[in-house]
Task: inverse folding
């Protein structure tokens, strides 16, 4: 497995299994001298953590990050930052019948093919969504480093099932909105959207089912000229990290797939002078042109599939007996993973953006 | 700039400017002993080349690849394969007023910010779509190496403007379809779709405008267990390469963004035994689970924005005088870049997939 | 700082400071299914640990590795292996005056320039030789994976001060010798050499001084054809890792610098058939030709400078007052670091060699 | 094969075979806006080229670099710089019997094992020393970029056979000496050393033999704080590139292997104030401490083995018939490759140092 995000400057090495002793990460190459705000780190960890309300699994996880290195008197030292999060509330029993009967749309089967059964399957093992906790920790640090460069990043739930939130106003995203969103555990632009989305999730939960969605993320304050063309694009680098989040199946920048239906005259982002500065009249490209930041806000969306773990019986195969089997998953599941994915999307983006900024 | 696709095994280094002496690439790490079919290379180069019909710019380019190294008696030697394509039909005059008045939705402005005017802007310079020719060359070689592993890859035009082709039958893609598609210069599954798409493009052309679209690509014959989780996912690696193609603004795997609206019970790909082998009852995940190939066909789609170069006058800014300006682009443009993008998508995917296969 | 050894398959991320909470590492990409022998891991950790006898600092370190992930029921799972070693016996007081008066030939001064004083300087911080403990842990695992491929690796002390041990018989290194060496805490081929070397170290210790040396390392069982030419050479990759060990100032393969004085007719390794197999009549190239393993034993030597920390007063500069200063280092030092460096050299080589083998 | 030097910023991809159409390279990531001095490029190419006098093979090579991209009006554009050098004077006949009877101490045999005979063996193919020509080209560009940062780099022949030149005065290397050395085709500090070395080479030539040597290289003007500890050391990165030069078998920094015999009190580089600045009283560490530049000149030496191609008959094996064989190499050889290696050492160091500087 490769759980290293090998950026140019910042390299993130994630470790741990859902039911092992601990999970965590090492952040190598993080800038020295950044004063850390531990409350903000904790807040992001809690936005990701399960057990807050009915939209997520009732499983509780303490998710207390213990910093082992790289921080002295609350400031980063430039040395690798290692963090450990102990695993506590683990019920392996729930997962026992899973190892030989792969859960549909989980990694169980391809992991079995790849590792021949050597891998730890308890609770998804190293493939578990729980491994996003160290990513959120690293992202919280990256956000603080980004703020020292004047960059603010936050995401909202664009869609759950058939319910859509308002979209960001791509060419005009104000800081206050992002500051609100980064504190919310169910972040939407419109309050009505939240209520309808919660209802959609509750319906799925009552049906023993799950539902998917889309997260839209924005970063403001990144000036033009960062990134590179062809094989060093801002889009390529962000999507590489974003597809590392379990359940992500699509990434689009700006108007993305919607551009397929447009004419050039409707899609092009024209220029104009604003207070003597070059500005954009629209931002359908989501702040990236030719792989390089344009100076407009960076905006992208991430498609998230419905949680594969559902209570309904599903067709599968027993890999030992090579017979068809019906699988019933008993454990505790999220009827919708999208709200908890929001801070993970922000984190993966923040780590990558910080690297892109430091790399220039 | 970074025009190196630094895979683990195969590294592609692309060079050249639209109006320089030559463009080309070096393919490092390509396997030794592959017998090359030069007709197939030429065919892919021609599928990408402009000037074939009214859907593309009438500009003619010879696009004759001259192999400088790495091939002896028609077989690869294992040494780096260098290829050169001379630039011939270049009219720099057409582009003269562009350098100081950036074309909307092109890389002109961010490249100006990044390089402070040192970069070669003639014809887009190193950012030109012409630089996809060496990628197609490398892809043609990768396809041949993939075929020796039983893997076939091809793409079709899924959508142009409001016209949609049929979609691949994700769980049941036959080789004959892919073999037909890889020979076509305007590849669609349904013949009617082609006719309607051509009409859509012609309408845009007559309006001095352009239109976007979506390319859908499939690879069959990849068995399960390739790739890796978290930061070595098949999705992340493919999208990284795909976003290196100019005008790509979105990538989705399997049902992609459509999964947002689904329930888990509708989205999950259940298992069943087929002739004693583990098989899938559907393939909404597009052949990748937990970042690892599942054994089902790999299917993904790529959103392509409308060609930014249109004849209509556009608002821009003169970067020298710092005044608002109206830009009229005279040169020769593609009213729709999507048909020519098809072999480029196949190429970027083939190079990456070959690397993923060799890496295991 | 970059404390990641970013090999192609196995990536080692080391973290920790001498006086922080813990040191450790994450080993990403380690093969699944390797049964670990914890006694051998412990043995290598102890060979590196200080406090064994008068050749090393009397400082005691428990150096108990706690595995956090990647190992289940004594076998590797393929997931990242994280290990933590708590820091216990740390006396920060000894180092207090050091931070502003850099110790000659230590990293203090360039680290101060680089990090502007943000870095943790207690006990050398992240630059401390103590950080080699996780490398030895990773090396012990790599050795076990190498043994499953029939490869055995071990090193001896070739020289300390003016005392030289016998050299390996490059073309004929038997496994028994390597098996003996890997168990020794003061490994020499000749027993007399050990006695004389110990005397040399004791003399330096009594003088409040230190002494340098050379470690020679061999790997047998690596067949021909691994590695690559130019920028993927076995020599380049091994030396890259070896220079990561503090105090290493030179690396040579086979006869190395001695080849400067030779004629080609004396240096060339001729071929002969031996039991029907291609064999070498000598091995002055140390098992690598054109960057690729030749099939002969891999042999290289590593120059290690005298421990910079000595009791004698030294000239330095106070970085705060910008005045000349005399430095007396009180802490506990190794009069000779060479014996403790032996398992670290083996470890860095084992990790790199395993990666080279897996990469083919 | 991997002929890519994948630095962090500058990536060098070398291609070509000794007897193919052309050799060359692509330099990706080179800074924009550097005005190139083509006479200096030519001068370095000629220092490396054969056929100048009796110390080298009489084979003449034009070695005219043709720039294909990345340079406009004599200035770098920031886009990849591709260069091509046509092969002209190639006599394949000389090498015909070599392919099946490997030349001792050449890469023939391991390359045969690795590529199973698919590789181009004519004239060494991609392993040929001729492939150092594009490296020298890239190095000449890197030197010019380094000069714009105030860094000067040059090397001399430290030793050939038993004849030694003076060594650099590590702590006090003046620019004039380096400026003289970079123009010489047989660079020594002492004029007498040159005469004696030439005699040593002539003796080897008359014997149908060859002789090895050592090149010592220095870089002045690099301030402290560049590079990194552990796995990003200046030593590790330079040695990685230097071992990419054919025939290099050892690399040492500062006093290197000589430090083995020293006491700490003799080896440590003490500090003193000089004109109010922190300065060193000696530079046995060769300008690198803890993997980071110290601000003192960077000095290192490179051991070069005798040219393996000699006229004397040598024992080898016929790989087809599996019989012992006697090999007589008829072609044109260098009795000593060391003088021609000097600009290659400078080049590999310059490319790497530039990357280290840009990376901070």
Result:
């Amino acid at each position: 497995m490769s759980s290293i995000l090998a950026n140019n400057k910042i390299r993130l090495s994630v470790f741990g299994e859902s039911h092992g002793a601990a999970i965590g990460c090492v952040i190598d190459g993080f800038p020295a001298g950044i004063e850390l705000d531990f409350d903000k780190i904790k807040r992001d960890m809690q936005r990701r953590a399960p057990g807050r309300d009915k939209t997520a699994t009732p499983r509780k996880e303490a998710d207390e990050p213990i910093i082992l290195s790289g921080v002295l008197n609350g400031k980063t030292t430039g040395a690798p930052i290692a963090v450990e999060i102990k695993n506590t509330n683990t019920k392996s029993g729930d997962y026992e019948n899973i190892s030989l009967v792969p859960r549909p749309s989980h990694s169980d089967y391809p992991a079995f093919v790849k590792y021949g059964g050597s891998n730890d399957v308890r609770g998804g093992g190293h493939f578990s969504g729980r491994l996003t906790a160290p990513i959120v920790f690293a992202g919280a640090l990256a956000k603080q480093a980004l703020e020292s460069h004047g960059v603010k990043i936050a995401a909202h739930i664009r869609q759950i099932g058939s319910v859509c939130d308002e979209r960001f106003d791509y060419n005009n995203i104000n800081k206050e909105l992002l500051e609100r969103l980064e504190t919310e555990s169910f972040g939407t632009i419109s309050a009505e959207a939240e209520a309808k989305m919660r209802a959609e999730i509750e319906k799925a939960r009552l049906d023993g089912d799950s539902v998917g969605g889309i997260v839209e993320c924005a970063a403001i304050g990144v000036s033009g000229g960062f990134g590179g063309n062809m094989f060093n694009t801002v889009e390529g680098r962000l999507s590489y990290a974003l597809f590392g989040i379990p359940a992500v199946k699509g990434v689009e920048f700006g108007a993305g797939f919607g551009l397929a239906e447009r004419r050039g005259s409707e899609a092009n982002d024209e220029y104009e002078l604003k207070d003597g500065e070059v500005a954009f009249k629209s931002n359908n490209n989501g702040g990236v042109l030719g792989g390089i930041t344009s100076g407009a806000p960076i905006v992208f969306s991430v498609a998230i599939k419905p949680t594969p773990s559902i209570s309904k019986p599903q067709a599968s195969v027993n890999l030992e007996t090579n017979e068809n089997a019906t699988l019933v998953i008993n454990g505790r599941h999220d009827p919708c993973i999208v709200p908890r994915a929001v801070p993970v999307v922000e984190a993966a983006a923040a780590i990558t953006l910080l690297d892109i900024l430091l790399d220039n």
User: Anything to note?
Assistant: The helical segments of chain B are 38-48, 108-115, 132-147, 175-181, 191-206, 234-242, 264-267, 338-358. Chain B touches chain A through 109 residues (CB under 8 Å). The CA atoms of residues 276 and 295 of chain B lie 15 Å apart.
